[in-house]
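Q:
Just now I want nothing more than another pair of eyes on a protein record. Here is the record:
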Amino acid sequence: MQELVRRVLILLTVVLLQPWTAHAHVGSPDVFFDGQIGPYPAHIAIRMPSVIPGRAQIEVRPQTDKAVAVSFLPLYSKTSIKNAPPEEMAESVVGEPGLYSGQLWLMSVGAYSIEVRLSGANGEGAARIPVNSVATHQLPLSPFLSSLFLGLGSLLTFGILAIVYVAAGESMLAPGAPVRRADRVKGLAASSIAAVILVLLLVGGWNWWKADEREFRRSLREGAWPDLAASVETEGRQRILHLVLGEKAFKPDYAIPLLLDHRKLLHLFLIREPDHDVFAHLHPVRRGGKTFDLALPALPKGDYKVLCDFTLSDSGLSSTAAGTVHLPAIPAAPATASENVTVQPDPDDSWAMAPADSIPSARAAEAVFLLPGGVRAVWKAHPPLRAKHDAHLEFTFRDSAGRPIPLEPYMGMMSHAAILRADGKIFAHLHPTGNFSMAAQSFFAAKIAREASKDAGGGAPVEMDHSTMHHGPSSGQSDSSIVLPYEFPSPGDYRIWVQIKTGGKVLTAAYETSVAP
């Protein structure tokens, strides 16, 4: 009885506080932005809460020597923009000139766009950065609160029974009149009925609580989501990779609603295990609601880790699914261009091999990876990397004579990069603008434009497609250099792949590094 009371009191508290729980990365939930906000170049770090509702910690560092006003506004995907809460003002950090910080409550599970607005003497601007508001942990109930709930629940239960007993047996008596045996019987009968009702309510609350807790645990996003099944078949002289996304998570006839990201529904990464010496960035095509096919390039045989980035079109949420697959040997006679093939390869597919002896260590002052054609990919010298600190990953590219080479957009970006911890538990897909989903950003841009158009009496606008956007080098960079904003979420050994395009060819550099606590 007391345990039931304790559970229901906890349940009531949970309902009142609304801690509902619900990523495109694995083990790397924080979001980073590097770009122009109106007249101000700025770096933004958004550190996400592990429980929902929870407070996101936001830091903004604009590149200006003048004071600016910084504000944050959460825009939720499932409610109208005009119903957004009031903006929160950031404060300057004492002892850190040019750094502003603040907190923002995220009350619901789902996709948010955090609007960061800067206003100062040089003008005003805003950037909207999409984030996933999901729970990754379940907080335990402290022994103190457990005992408190138990005591309050017991007091409430016996108080209700006492009130019912007195109301039924004594409320109609005149002042000073003695309580008769019949009155006591009536009180006992009423309190007995009330006790049965309370027990039924407590049992129902217990069952509801357990069901809700099971649903909560299913919604936790501590790693990759959803499940991903991968297999390879040889069809003629092609190796076809078959993917099923969410076979266990979704119903058999479910069609996953996807947004185009750089004009692709999926971004698939294949990394050969255990040495991480082969890396591929590929783009499957949809064959069914949850099924996708891919014409494999000439990847060598072996066991591969599979990581698949996508963004949902109905919610703006982005996630990464993960799995494994074994690639058989390449067919003896590879398919030729003139031959009819089952699946056409995507023109933006790319892959590279990087044996261990070719990968430089980032412990050197400048780590240099030698690319085909004599191109030198240089990871600029940097302080020792630490978890939860700005890594400022800066790379420059030179020809064999040491001259800078011009970079070209690769799927709308000056670079794509991937980071994988040695144990495979952390993965991130980066761009020079940040590690957020461009598809999710376009989702919110379209939502805001639709609502503005509706309020103005116009039709729905065409959704933006960031895949064609050219993000050039930021202030202080040449057109042969890139900077990737990121913070390693935890210590460990990492492999980093950096992709650029020059002379019409995609090149992939690889590095290894260690991150300290």
Notes: The two ends are 47 Å apart (CA to CA). Residues 1-23, 459-476 have pLDDT under 50 and may be disordered.
